[in-house]
């Protein structure tokens, strides 16, 4: 099975949202996520928004890039602009999505909707 890795700063919000949406919709691919740094726990509001939009979250804790073998992935998507610039992989796509962390839930929902749209577009390109 082909794999995509979603990367953000701490693997608490955006990359977790992308992973959840992708795995709910993909037929031939599997997504995982990681952060350039690793936080101690997932963002509660991000998890709430994922559930609110009808998706599930399998991830139990954030992961750092140092915990994954980036070469195992066919494709890497960075969902941040902050510190995600130098990902050492041949197939990297950069989305540059606002970090909702610590902001109003309305921002989380807007960010979630943008990620959902981009994940659907990505799946249209890479799956039959």
UniProtKB/TrEMBL annotation:
Protein name (Swiss-Prot/TrEMBL): Protein tyrosine phosphatase
Spans traversing the lipid bilayer: none
Keyword NAD: no
Domain Phosphotyrosine protein phosphatase I: 2-125
Residues in the signal sequence: none
InterPro entries on file: Ptyr_pPase, Ptyr_pPase_sf
Assigned keywords, A-Z: Arsenical resistance
Record-linked Gene3D superfamilies: 3.40.50.2300
GO BP terms, alphabetized: response to arsenic-containing substance
Transcription regulation found in the keyword field: no
